[in-house]
Structures are given as C-alpha cells and as structure tokens.
C-alpha cells in the first residue's frame, strides 16, 4: 500500500466516522470527569464547604459517621483537594456503599448519597460500565486511535500551524464546518497529544508492558502476624484514631497534607495514607505511608521526592490526563480542551455524513453502513451494563433511573435529528434545486 495524503485522510476518517458514537462517548465522559466534583457541588448542597484555615478533628467526623451508620464501616476516606468541597467517606452499610459528605471545617456530616455524578462519569469514562476488563481495554485502545488520528491529520493538513485563525464563512455550511473542524483541531493539538499519550501509558500500565505496573506501583505490604481479630474487623474503622495517624504520617513525610485514608480490610493489612507534599504535579499516591493498625508504627513508606523515573511518570499521568493539578483553573482549561476534541468528532461526523447522504441520494440508493450496527450494538450493550451497575451497585432510585433514561433518550434523539434527519432534508433540497 502506498501511503500518501489520501491514504492518511482515509485512516483519519475511518477512526472518526466508523467508531464515531463510541469515540464521542469516551471523549465527552472524560471531558465532564474533569469537573465532575464541581458538578456534584452544584447537585448536592451537602458537598459544599466554606473555605477556612481551621479544621475540625477527624475523630469528631468518625464519631458522627459511627452515630449515623452504627452497623457500617469506613472503607475509604477521600480528602477534598479543593477548599470549597467536603471530604467524602465511603461507608459500607448493610451491603450498600454510601458516599458521606463530611465538612472538615465544622466536623459536621452534611449529607450522603449512593451515587455521585463524579462516580458515574468516572465509571463511564473508565470502563463504559462493561465488565470483565472488556470495557477498560475498549477505552484504552482509544488512546492509540486518538494518537493515530492526530498524526494522520497533521500529515495531510499541510502547514496547519499557519492557520491558527483561519475560519471560512459565507460559503455554505459544509465549508464552514470543514473550516471549523480544522480550526478547532489545530488549537486542540496539545490536548489531543496529552490525552493520547497518557491513555497509551494507562494501557501499558494495565498490561504491564515493560514491567510498568510491577515497578511503578508500590506493593501494599502485609504484616508478619495478624494485628486484628476477624470478628472485630468490621467495626475497626470506627476505632482508629484518625488524628493520631495523620500526625504520624506528617512525622515521616514533613509538610504532607494527608488526603486519602484506607483502613485495613484484612487482619494482616496496615492502615494506608496518601497525600500531597512539596513535590509538584504528582498525584497523592506518590506519597504513601503504611502504619500498623494498632500501634501506628511505620510499616512502609514511599516519598514523592525519592521515587524513580518510571514511578514519577506513572504518578503524573492522572493529574495531566484530568487536569486537576492546578485546581479549578486547570480543570476548566482541560474541560474546554475536551469539549473541543468532542466537537471534532461531531463536526467530522457531520461532514462525512452529509457527503455520504448526498452520494446515496445521487445514486438513488440507501443502505446502512457496516459499522452503524456496531455502534448501535455497543451502545445498547453499554446501556444494559450501565443500568445493571446502577441498580445493583449504586442502588439508584426509580426517579434517578427515569431521569437518566430521559437524558439518554434526548441525546439519542438529538443525534438522530442532527446527523440523519436534518442532513437528509438539506441534501434533498439541494438536489431538488440542482
């Protein structure tokens, strides 16, 4: 096969058109995942906190949670990275996980839910709700496809760097959309490159290519002898002195701001803490402190300042991919960058679809593309798994399920109206005038 500009254009078009719906879902879900905590702030008033230098005792929060869920247990304590958000404690109670909103400034429990917008979007972007690792690898493959799409576009779109402000108007919708597609594409190059490279890294980590997963992720240590009794393990999370373990972590990593805390889930596991230190950009897990569950003595430690290059690359992937390393400012930048890439999928599909419909009308034939059933089939499969997870894992209410169904139905209707019905009507009018 001879590779020329036309060949690269066909490759670019195939990626963007044949897998358009799935591609769009992956892009748009990642886009909203960047500001998902902020959207939860809008949805759940209980998640809102007033910035303050004073922090309440973690033990007061523990006691409030224990009083609310006496038969429950804390499995994960997520520390809010923004001062306008509450901490979220994952509490397993009677077989159901609750996301409990705890205000670190006042020590109050301000609300709880079984599902957050952040969790929904991260699950959708992470594995499309498709189990058995199939969903994970489906999403991760798009890291390669996005990179190939970028490379092919830069090859056949000559001197793209000179057309940063070129938008053609007044020459019809097709010319406008083509010009807009190219303009947004040019400005999106840094984000496309960043998202694709980090996506490829995630794929390498999950498949342990070059031993990344093994060498870049610190293995959770186990105690030589069991420190806990299995009969007391369920209630142990309510017995931890959270203020003391935070102080212990700060002694071992100066200036650490403890964020996430994971109580032991087995009798021979330590307490696991992570947090931010003076090392910029890396995620919280770059700093790890493992403490004995009863004595709070140090079992193992990882300091961000002492990690190797491979681990450092692994720990900057998340902040770079989701843009949360600079607070709300970078989150919004990444959000609009993601919107631009999602828009590229839509405009590219519109241009191709109109060309295809015109060709069909001129030849007086209509036929379903080979990849259309694939997109539709994957869509229904994803929704089936999504509803199963929402009902079984997150105990979604009937009202929430109805709301999600209405939103999905409206999105599908809008997609059909814009990319099928309207295009066909426009082409019919154009051909009638010709």
Question: Tags for this entry?
Answer:
4-stranded antiparallel beta sheet, 15 helices, 434 residues, 8 strands
Describe this structure in words.
The chain has 15 helices and 8 strands. By secondary structure, the chain is of the alpha+beta class. A hairpin with a 6-residue loop joins β3 and β4. α1 (5-18) packs antiparallel against α6, α2 (20-33) packs antiparallel against α13 (328-362) and α7 runs antiparallel to α13 (328-362). The longest helix has 36 residues, at 398-433. It is elongated.
Number of helices: 15
Task: Profile the largest sheet.
Answer: 4 strands, antiparallel
What portion of residues belong to β-strands? 5-15%
Computed over alpha carbons, the radius of gyration is 25 Å
Parts with pLDDT < 50 across at least 5 consecutive residues: none
Multimeric status of the protein: single chain
- Specify the overall morphology: elongated
Instruction: Give the strand line-up of the largest sheet.
Output: 1-2-3-4
Order of helices and strands: HHHHEEEEHHHHHHHEEEEHHHH
What class, by secondary structure content?
alpha+beta
According to DSSP, the number of beta strands is: 8
**Distance between the amino and carboxyl termini:** 38 Å
Average predicted confidence as pLDDT? 91
- Amount of helix: 55-70%
Quickly describe the structure:
56% of the residues lie in helices and 11% in strands. With 434 residues, the protein is an alpha+beta fold.
